[in-house]
Amino acid sequence: MENKEINHTANHRHKPVFVEGPIEPAFVGVAIGKHSANTTIGAHSIFLGQVRSDVLDGRTVTAIEYSAYVDMAEEKFREIREAAFAKYPLTCMHLYHSLGRVGAGEISLFVFTSGKHRREAIDACNEVVERIKQEVPVWGKEIFDDETYTWKENK
Amino acid sequence: MENKEINHTANHRHKPVFVEGPIEPAFVGVAIGKHSANTTIGAHSIFLGQVRSDVLDGRTVTAIEYSAYVDMAEEKFREIREAAFAKYPLTCMHLYHSLGRVGAGEISLFVFTSGKHRREAIDACNEVVERIKQEVPVWGKEIFDDETYTWKENK
Amino acid sequence: MKITILVFGKLTEILPQQHLELADEPTTVGTVRARLEAQFPALKSMRYRMAVDKKMATDDTPLTENAEVALLPPFSGG
Amino acid sequence: MKITILVFGKLTEILPQQHLELADEPTTVGTVRARLEAQFPALKSMRYRMAVDKKMATDDTPLTENAEVALLPPFSGG
User: At what angle do helices A70-87 and A118-135 cross, to 10 degrees?
Assistant: First the structure.
């Protein structure tokens, strides 16, 4: 399984990016460990989005409920992924985004790029995160502690 | 312990950065999970340096043996850390660097920055990685499969 | 011509997902938008973009039979 | 004046860590470097910088009693 995954990433194989609920920290550790067999990698860059308990008019965010135009979003993720592989000499890229409820302090986005050198891993990770925020049809509904909510908007 | 750590990072407390041997992937997962209690964090940026099995004149690197001018290096790490906290509105920063032998495919550097927004986390992580590579007195001796070696130099 | 209207995020509070039967051909995204804004006036004050068959579209984008027309409020993924 | 010479990385193959007794005061990093390069000629062909008491130094940097003078080849951490 591990080797299969590493071999296939060269073909930019697209697995679904959406996962139900939060991304567990231990899952990130496991994802990292899967790359120890690929000794052409010299650098990993990881971005994690975590749900903040922002306060608005005295109400505190307890969770974000994510919804998406799933088919279009998965196409966008694939497009973003392929553009990054075309632009940067990456070894691997893995993307995960939550759907459904993610509590404050939990992780909803996991972008993981790897390359021979740090420059490509870092630059690709940065660019992919920006593009996901701007271009992928996902919506977050911030749920407050009094059961009211507001729709988030990315800057 | 967990809460203590989070509370103290605001004071830029400096723990030793050097650890003996490789940094385990599971350790990274645990480090991430310790931040779920800090719900002012919206973004984590992580850089990991992994030992490559480069080939030079038909010999393959099997490990890097790291040594350092430890006292000066820890001072540099503190200086780099404090400069990043002064420049960026970070919530946390954690740094780990290996000493001793780290095999190909294993991790020798772990830079972990967290902030309210992605910009500060990503920019600080990037800058800290560059400064570590350029300014910290650490040396890597690349050990080949035939027991010969060469001294690495950062670009 | 029959099309499907998909609605997301905050806009789901204003109008439902629905199928529309359109008389006039050729039809564009702008025609559909005008029709929806007439039927659901709250839409006019909302910021949103439209997609046709999962591609971002403008008012000029033509529609074909069974097109999937989506109303997309500002994204907030990540 | 007594100083300590610390040596790292590739340079450890050329000269050992050592204590030096220096006659002439005031003394600078440059003086020490010249003396070491005379004693260990292979040093002359090496790229290295020097630090005094854990701060990067130049040939002009003055030395004081018990200074810790380090010879630092190009870094390769990370």
Answer: 150
